[in-house]
Amino acid sequence: MTGQERIVDAHHHVWDLSVRDQNWITGDELAPLRRDFTLADLEPEARAVGVRATVLVQTVTVAEETPEFLALAQDSDFVAGVVGWCDLTAPDVAGTLAALRELPGGDRLVGIRHQVQGEPDPAWLLRPDVRRGLRAVADAGLVYDLVVQARQLPATVQTAALMPELTFVLDHAGKPPVAAGELRPWADDVRALAARPNTVCKLSGLVTEADPRSWTVRDLRPYADTVLDAFGPDRLMFGSDWPVCRLAATYEEVVDTARTLTDALSGDERARVLATTAERVYGL
């Protein structure tokens, strides 16, 4: 049973299929996710293992989702922050962000994310229109969550170097090839990203990058050790990636795995990974 350390879950999702389809849920492998997942489903599981607050993260590139998430956060004493979505290539990103902050729950908006992993251009982040939008995110005092494939990490490194005024949070450790057991070039690119002081990493999503049916902590350890060494506990934060994690593990198993992967840290260092880094970076 998980110990009752204070935990902030810096990465989870919810969706209601009667409101909006999640069109990324396709094929037999993802079929268990084709149902509603709500805060009411999450909260008992999370509180049972010591989670005190969470960050709700966008799932689809639909403008209506972010206001819905902000409203959920306003009505919850559990969701401390929302990473939403807006079109970074639109002409008035600053106006869009300002309008979101005026909505119910707008004070819970802490960051923006786009499904960069789905963009065919590996250098999408370097496009001039995208960088203009990223500057607006920085000017608004928000962070930018990076959901990228390992092949997109080189452009991510360049973007972080070009925009030191913006804090970038790398979701799911940059999706390393855990199932293949390969470390490079992912590890080299992650270390290059971590060399930029305006970058942070989430210890999240590793169980679903491994073989979901047979993964072990030993499989994950080289990847967790890499990001721990590269970013350090001051720039590493735990995230469950619930409910996607359910394809490979229960919520409790994900939390226990994170605690095991950080077992070499001091108590204070692990507290940073499990809670205080997320609180500081997102201003929770």
TrEMBL record:
<protein>
    <submittedName>
        <fullName>L-fuconolactonase</fullName>
    </submittedName>
</protein>
<dbReference type="InterPro" id="IPR006680">
    <property type="entry name" value="Amidohydro-rel"/>
</dbReference>
<dbReference type="GO" id="GO:0016787">
    <property type="term" value="F:hydrolase activity"/>
</dbReference>
<dbReference type="Pfam" id="PF04909">
    <property type="entry name" value="Amidohydro_2"/>
</dbReference>
<dbReference type="InterPro" id="IPR032466">
    <property type="entry name" value="Metal_Hydrolase"/>
</dbReference>
<feature type="domain" description="Amidohydrolase-related">
    <location>
        <begin position="8"/>
        <end position="284"/>
    </location>
</feature>
<comment type="similarity">
    <text>Belongs to the metallo-dependent hydrolases superfamily.</text>
</comment>
<dbReference type="InterPro" id="IPR052350">
    <property type="entry name" value="Metallo-dep_Lactonases"/>
</dbReference>
